[in-house]
Amino acid sequence: MKIPSPLLCFAAIALSSCSERPAVEASYDVIPLPQKVALDSAEKAFKLNPRTRIVATDSAQQINARLFAEYISSLTGFTPKIVSNTPASDYIHLTTDPAESADAYTINVTADSVVVRGGSASGTFYGLQTLRKAIPGKAEADVLYPAGKISDVPRFAYRGAHFDTSRHFFSPDSVKIFIDMLALHNMNRFHWHLTDDQGWRIEMKSLPELAKIGSKRAGTVIGNNTGEYDNIPYGGYYTQDEVKEIIKYASDRHITIIPEIDLPGHMQAALAAYPELGCTGGPYEVWQRWGVSDDVLCAGNDSVYVFLDKVLDEITGIFPSEYIHIGGDECPKVRWKECARCQAKIKALGLRDDKHSTAEDKLQSHVMKHAADRLASKGRKAIGWDEILEGGCDTTTVIMSWRGVQGGIKAAQAGHDAIMTPATYLYFDYKQSHDEGEPGAFYAAPLLLDKVYGYEPIPEDFTDEQAAHIIGVQGNTWCEYIPNFRHAQYMTLPRFAALSELQWSSAPKDFDAFLVRLSQLRKIYDAEGYNYNAKAFERQE
Ligand code: TNX
Q1: Of residues 196, 197, 360, 480, which has the active-site annotation?
Q2: Is position 196 annotated as part of the catalytic site?
Q3: Catalytic residue among 40, 90, 313, 330
């Protein structure tokens, strides 16, 4: 039977009006807290629904649009279409206003449309993260965005998270999820710890043994350096193709990857591959235990400098980041003190002990300077751990303050830029509670969520000029005691949420209000399938 078309039409309208879709109400009480939210109670809410279009006109906004469509899809079950022409109504327009600072954004919500305007595509992206986090969790429903205007700008330009993929190896897919976790928290720097005593984890074409030998260890110590080993061969490394794919993945999410080649200490895995680079000549093994190895690069051996040049040239060839991390932490000097070549180098360079540092400290500065100069010749800048201040270094090097805040203070006072990552507040390998059996580094006091949240990165007595040298804040996740990625998520979530507030928001602190907002963010963690520390969502003793 042929149904007359007016009748069909009538049936369709009836169906759509009687099957009104459920809708959930969005809330802009997100993490990190936006600077200004002005709701317009006289205006109707905007309803995000399956017919809503995302308008993106250039390629950077189209990348943003695709990611936003994915976020919406995983929360609501529908995927909005992306278009390049603005419809009459029912759209979310992604655009920029170059007059604003790059990461700033505004969101204008009316009944007809949502306009997200970033200072650049990264600002737009943070606006979209706010719209995403405003959704109260997974539901097969439309979303009602209250009308009004949000204006937001981050406090710090450098908002980082570090991840140690040497002590344990995490697959490229896990690294991508880690990057997604950064993006969710408006972070824009991924400090990728790629080398250490226990494993060299990046392919170097000019030094093939680094991956071949340096990425594998014969076993792993059980527990906290008990002296017992599991004797299970362990290894893994990232090929350069995998690394390039991860760099692109991060860059789509407005995240710069800062690779770290930790030198001249924490190099035992490299020494296992090329024993001639050590003071004793080896043999060395890729370390099976945790701690600080006495075996470091021989600073008196010219081929070490050639090795460093090769590594840094390949690294700068792969990573576009302006900053490259060259480590410099925990470099014992016992081998150098006994090594004829190191002592000859000290003599040749005219290095002497003084009341601030030893000749060996200055020899380390010489190695660091060589590496920093090599980076400078490629137009890049070095970042180093705060130890590098000890033998002196020039102020173009950025200092990463981890042994408390003193390194950052000294650095900023001397005119270096500094990134604050003090262990006592921002080390996410530390335990999260006083409970017996709580996993985490056994040697450190537990680092509870309220302590992370309460950290103030700019010392009170800083002048404006000194404060301007604190370019950012970072959390570090060292992985001696983090054997798999779900556990890495447990250690970082929700401490990332507290970190992101320090990095982004300038608002006065209110931990209870933060916990309320955190319960909303938890629903996004659930929707994404992230593991987290559930106990931390309540106030803890
Ligand atoms: C110190 S922080 C280290 C790492 C360890 C970490 C464990 C830094 C520059 N060095 O090698 O993994 O402590 O908490």
Answers
A1: 196
A2: yes
A3: 330
CA-CA distance, 396 to 368, in Å (whole number)?
12
For residue 476, which atom of ligand 1 is closest to its CA?
Answer: 2
Atom of ligand 1 nearest to the CA of 330: 10
Gyration radius (Cα) of the chain, Å: 26
State pTM to two decimals: 0.96
- Told to judge if 314 belongs to the known catalytic residues of this protein, a careful annotator would answer no
Residue 391 — very low, low, confident or very high, per pLDDT cuts 50/70/90?
confident
CA of 478 to the centre of ligand 1 (A): 7
- For atom 9 of ligand 1, the residue with the nearest CA is 329
Question: Ligand 1: distance of its center to the CA of 438 in Å?
Answer: 20
Catalytic site residue from 254, 266, 325, 416: 266
Distance of CA 504 to the CA centre of its chain: 14
CA distance 276 to 397: 29
Residues 439-469 pLDDT 10s: 999 999 999 999 999 999 999 999 999 999 9
**CB under 8 Å to 498, separation ≥6 — which residues?**
449, 450, 452, 453, 514
233 has a pLDDT exceeding 80: yes
CA distance 288 to 272: 12
Are 181 and 489 in contact, with CB atoms under 8 Å apart? Answer: yes
User: 184 C-alpha vs ligand 1 centroid, how far in Å?
Assistant: 26
pLDDT of residue 225: 95
Higher pLDDT, 148 or 17: 148
Mean pLDDT of 131-138: 97
Tokens standing for residue 235: 């290894």
Pocket of ligand 1 from Cβ distances under 6 Å = 329-330, 385, 402, 427, 429, 441, 478, 480
Mean pLDDT, rounded, for 108-120: 98
pLDDT at 19: 58
Taking only the tens place, the pLDDT of each residue in 490-499 is 999 999 999 9
Please count the other Cβ atoms lying within 10 Å of the Cβ belonging to residue 459: 16
Q: How far is the CA of 397 from the centre of ligand 1 (A)?
A: 20
pLDDT at 263 exceeding the cut of 90: yes
The reported pLDDT for the residue numbered 4 is: 46
Residue to mutate, 478, 482, 491, ligand 1, most ligand atoms under 8 Å from C-beta: 478
Starting from the edge strand earliest in sequence, which strands make up the sheet with 105-109, in order? 36-39, 148-152, 105-109, 113-118, 91-96, 53-55, 81-83
Is 23:62 a contact under the CB 8 Å cutoff?
A: no
